[in-house]
Amino acid sequence: MEGLVTVDLERELGRIDPDIYGQFIEQIPGAIYGPLFDVAAARRGDDGLRSSVIEALQPLRIPVVRWPGGNFASSYHWPDGVGPREERPVRLEWNWSRRAQTGGGPIEECNQFGTNEFVELCRRLGAQAYINLNDATAPIDEALWWVEYCNYDGQTHYADLRRRHGFAKPHGVKYWGIGNEAWGLHQFGHTTAQRYAERAREYARFLKVVDPQIKLLAVGHWDPAWNEAVLELCGGLVDYITLHQYGRSYRLLTRPAQSSPLELIAEVLQGGEPHSAPVPGGPPVAADDYLTVLATPVHFEQQMRALAHQIDEAAQRLGWPRKPAIALDEWNLRLLAERDDERYVEWETPRSLGDALFHARVYHALHRLCAHVKMANYTMMVQNNGLVLVRGNRVLKTAIWHVTDLMRNDLGPRVVASQARAETFHAAVEADTGLKGMVEADYLDVSATLSDDGKTLALSLAWGHPNQPCECRFDLRGAQLGDRVQGRMLTGPGPLAANTFDEPHCLQVELFDEKFHGQWRLPPVSLTVLQIPLE
Question: Is the pTM of this model over 0.90?
Fold first, then answer.
């Protein structure tokens, strides 16, 4: 199969904000305590952070980490998680207790991982801290005191409290989110768009009295009516409008015994009808689930473009001196599973090579939207379909770790216009945004970036066909490609291949440095980054 990548060096779209490679952690059962933070070690006087996990994450140069939620933030009271460990109260955790996948029941939150532990984690990662405030079950003064505790250097009660806890200098927490998913019935403090906008406006005004240098994030939505209210009342006061996007994959649901997932994919590609088993209470398990995963980033990009357009229109109409950026501060692909005819989100399955292409294509979309999207936080950093999985003393780098490594470390900061064409396909896409419909996508997707000095072109090429390679040609406008190419390529046995604790190197990252002849062969289901000097 042939592909063509067109790059226009004379059309520069902007600079990638490193914060789009941000991460997210939350006090979801099994996500922080144990894999990331050792409570017993902390009580013995250690900082409690798992050094092996931090060492595995450090090569990714993570720029920003969001915490404590998510849903957890909406009932979290930060004073519970500071001060002497023996004095921190154990609380019932209300949000995730009712979602626990171990049969439900109460979950106790020990509060041993709190504000100062989070800031220390960020310090060791070299990341900025992003704290999501509780605007649902806590009064506004609790939020103001939190900023005062973290950032104020004067002689006040909460600044002195931080000093008594062993931190003489302010933490300087840069990012503060005003609530989480306030539009949702699942959320403590859920409300109407108008009421949330009024609440966020009040928070924004007073939070910046405590620290004028902080950056504030207000809750956005895929519903334009919600965003209209938020932009109208506080768009000129906040620095970001947030968006949460989750795609859905059904590959873990019931499938017919006579066909393997790869055989099902092949049947669809050859024009056959999908064979699937119905799932109680939901749509059939589509044989082309991999194609759904591959196409979902197209929908994500459409949603982000719609919000960007809405922000631009509001800025012009309301005359703001500056307009808020977009923060995609939760995003991922949900793997749905079933137990006793009930569905749940499966968190433990390692991400596959097909999932890796989903993530690469989301990053490509963020690059194309670099003028508007200035932050993104992948859900989650550790465990729960994370960059790394932890089992005992073992740390596993997943497919998503490798995608993040390639994007963060091999691409340039300047985005130029590019387009990829090979062969299109249609897939049924379902997302938490409420979309259920057909999306058209190409098997080939590209992001083109330049080095700061403009002398090197980096091309990220995500080729998704499950069994055919792509002979990729390049049409460059504004310069000539040099005769050498170097880079790295992520490959594996197929779209469902994944690194596991039993096979930690199932996926391979190949390095190359060789003569460039003007085209490149992309293996099936692969992510390749080419670095080519310009003449």
Answer: yes
